[in-house]
Design brief:
With 399 residues, the chain is of the alpha+beta class. It has helices at residues 28-43, 51-62, 114-119, 164-177, 204-208, 223-226, 255-272, 288-292, 356-361, 373-390, and strands at residues 2-11, 63-64, 77-78, 82-85, 101-103, 111-113, 123-124, 140-141, 152-160, 191-194, 220-222, 235-237, 245-247, 331-337, 343-349, 392-393. The protein has 2 domains: 2-94 and 144-194, Alpha-Beta Plaits (2-Layer Sandwich), CATH 3.30.70; 245-393, no CATH class. It contains 10 helices and 16 strands. It is globular, with a radius of gyration of 22 Å.
């Protein structure tokens, strides 16, 4: 039998959901991708964290056009999970609000717009010739509009009845940790769900106060174990038994203030990890900072940058290496709205080792650091120490 759940989805922070013209629009593909993303986290342990088995089951449930049968032939299958939105219109945010600044010790003028820092790409500082009505150095949307905070829609989710428990688990994870669209790992596109199943999807306050953390107990693994795989599959847990989930020390009146605090925190933990030897084209060595995410401005890595047919480095008009490969930040942000209407930001770590395809590209002759799990672990522990200082670890509430 087919089960149906109807929910309301509300944006807690602006979202960058580009359509075919890169205009912010309500679209189902980002939400379907969000379901698949958190489904993997929800069930990875049931498949022994075997990505091949997980991928096959995902294809059977959500649809695919790539699985092969026992004879090695590719075959397709329509998904058994359907999602329909009530609206397909464009967003309502056309002019970006004032962007509060944060101090960044590694930029020339020491301060940078916090929204710009967390949303660069969808957010830009436009050239006056292209945007004469926008004050110089003011943060603006690259493509208007975006979906604004507080915009909402309803959606209907249809799925096989036997998947009900798993679907409810996925919706719980999305409600506490989910965000969609461009730069969503930095907190943009944070969403909250209402009215899914009365009493079965717990509100943000439960997570923030450490209540009912057993809801995600099956999705938590020790940091050391997580680092043995090279893909996100579980929330990390430190040796003291605490999950790698943090919240801001304060509550905020607006999403803008909460994002400003997240920018401050991100700058704090990134700059805590130094760059010692790398000087871009003169010495494009791999260092600890590159493990957090890549590209790193002005610090390209040999093996992760563009080269011409002769093997020479390609540079941009400023003489900097063209950084080609991408490593997404495995430490993610989300904005939550409390029952009292305040905004709280969280950080959470879905740890994993450096992906094999990036590890294999590193030039062993130039890179003195070998990114073994033993080398990577202290880097992340230092990041966690900074977060313990700058934020508050979410712990299980006393029974």
């Amino acid at each position: 039998m087919i089960q149906k759940i109807r929910c309301s989805v509300h944006f807690v922070a602006p979202a960058f959901l580009g359509d075919a013209h890169q205009k912010g629009s309500w679209r189902t593909p980002p939400f379907k991708a969000l379901l698949r993303q958190w489904w993997r986290i929800a069930v990875a342990g049931q498949f022994g964290y075997d990505h091949t088995r997980l991928r096959e089951e995902e294809g059977k449930l959500f649809g695919h056009a790539w699985l092969t049968n026992s004879q090695g032939k590719t075959w397709a299958m329509q998904g058994r999970v359907r999602l329909n939105l009530d609206r397909w219109d464009r967003g309502k945010l056309f002019e970006w609000p004032k962007d509060p600044e944060v101090i960044h010790p590694e930029v020339n003028r020491s301060k940078i717009g916090s929204h710009l820092y967390l949303g660069f790409g969808p957010l830009i500082i436009p050239k006056e010739a292209k945007a004469p009505m926008i004050p110089k150095k003011a943060t603006a949307l690259k493509n208007k509009p975006a979906i604004n905070a507080d915009e909402c829609s309803k959606f209907t989710l249809c799925f096989p009845e036997r998947e009900t428990e798993t679907v409810l688990q996925v919706l719980q994870l999305i409600n506490w940790f989910g965000s969609v669209g461009g730069r969503s790992r930095n907190g943009w596109g944070s969403i909250t769900l209402f009215g899914c199943e009365e009493g079965k999807i717990l509100p943000s306050d439960d997570l923030l106060e450490g209540r009912n953390l057993e809801k995600i107990g099956a999705q938590i693994r020790l940091l050391d174990e997580c680092m043995e795989l090279d893909w996100p599959h579980a929330f990390g847990q430190s040796a003291d038994g605490k999950p790698l989930i943090w919240k801001t020390k304060e509550e905020y009146q607006t999403w803008s203030e909460a994002m400003q605090e997240l920018a401050r925190v991100k700058i704090a933990f990134r700059t805590k990890i130094p760059i010692d030897e790398n000087s871009d084209i003169r010495n494009p060595s791999f260092e600890k900072r590159h493990l957090l995410s890549y590209p790193v401005t002005n610090h390209g890595v040999d093996g992760w940058v563009k080269k011409d047919k002769r093997g020479n480095f390609e540079t941009d008009r400023h003489g900097k290496l063209k950084q080609e490969d991408r490593l997404a930040n495995q430490l993610r942000f989300k904005l939550l709205r409390t029952n009292s209407g305040k905004f709280v930001a969280i950080a959470y770590h879905l740890p994993h080792g450096l992906p094999k395809q990036l590890k294999d590209k590193l030039d062993s002759r130039r890179n003195i650091h070998k990114p073994t799990p033993e080398w990577q672990l202290p880097v992340w522990r230092e990041v966690h120490d900074t977060l313990d200082s700058e934020m508050t670890r979410i712990e299980r509430a006393p029974q």
